[in-house]
């Protein structure tokens, strides 16, 4: 089973005369452990596609199988359940400012009823160690650099042991070195854990981490290149 399989996926915003198609007949497969970068001009539909795959909005047309679940006609309950199996990373990291790095990561484990508070904090500490933040566990986001904050997001996305990570412009707010460090880290973790990554980016500095680069234009996939290497 591939983590992501899209067939004939179309999507439009608005209704009636205001209806505006933004995705047109998209086919896309992401394999286990594969890192796919999604590029394309502003407005080409990348973020919309990512939110559909992430079960953050309801499908309209076509088929999307994500981690084995069909999203077309899926109930809200089924979508919520699927979202818990996906790691999300965003440009502005979405960390809670009043919680420490460790608490931010531990929060992502709260869905797991089997783990008590102490076990969650312990696991969060180990994940922070895995992203190179040992010694920074008890700092709040404001006391970390942009790159370190994005590493906390990576640790948080990995917390629930996801089969798929969806990232939207994760390096946009970072300088070149921190951006490359974060994506390299993401790559190493994905490869060692067999997690698939679909990453939207405008950042030409990180194209070399991809297994495949998919280009979108006007709601269509116009090019899919396997990166040699
Ligand atoms: N909630 C919404 N309601 C109506 N139109 C929307 C909505 N969200 C996005 N759009 C429009 O849909 C189109 C695709 O937007 P989307 O954000 O998916 O593109 P994108 O490729 O991610 O762009 P960017 O690179 O600028 O983030 C754009 O024309 C946008 O204006």
Description:
This protein has 229 residues and is α/β, with parallel strands linked by helices. It has a domain at 1-85 and 194-229: Rossmann fold (3-Layer(aba) Sandwich). It has helices spanning 46-53, 76-83, 101-107, 117-130, 146-159, 176-193; strands at 4-13, 20-30, 35-39, 61-66, 69-70, 86-90, 164-168, 196-200, 212-217, 220-226. The strands form 2 sheets. It has a 6-stranded mixed sheet with strand order 6-7-8-3-9-10, with helices on both faces. Strands 2-1-4-5 form a 4-stranded antiparallel sheet, with helices on one face. Helix 3 packs across helix 4, helix 3 packs parallel to helix 5 and helix 4 (117-130) crosses helix 5. It is globular. The model has no long low-confidence stretch (mean pLDDT 91). Bound molecules: adenosine-5'-triphosphate. Adenosine-5'-triphosphate binds at residues 13, 22, 40, 42-48. It comes from Falsiroseomonas bella.
Layout of helices and strands:
Blueprint: E1 4-13, E2 20-30, E3 35-39, H1 46-53, E4 61-66, E5 69-70, H2 76-83, E6 86-90, H3 101-107, H4 117-130, H5 146-159, E7 164-168, H6 176-193, E8 196-200, E9 212-217, E10 220-226
Parallel strand pairs: 3-8, 3-9, 6-7, 7-8
Antiparallel strand pairs: 1-2, 1-4, 4-5, 9-10
Helix pairs in contact: 3-4, 3-5, 4-5, 5-6
The structure holds adenosine-5'-triphosphate.
Organism: Falsiroseomonas bella
Keywords: ATP-binding, Nucleotide-binding, Transport
Domain ABC transporter: 4-227
Under CATH at level 1, the class of the domain at 1-85 and 194-229 stands as Alpha Beta
CATH topology call of the domain at 1-85 and 194-229 = Rossmann fold
Overall 3D geometry?
Answer: globular
Helix/strand order, N-terminal first? EEEHEEHEHHHEHEEE
CATH architecture group name of the domain at 1-85 and 194-229? 3-Layer(aba) Sandwich
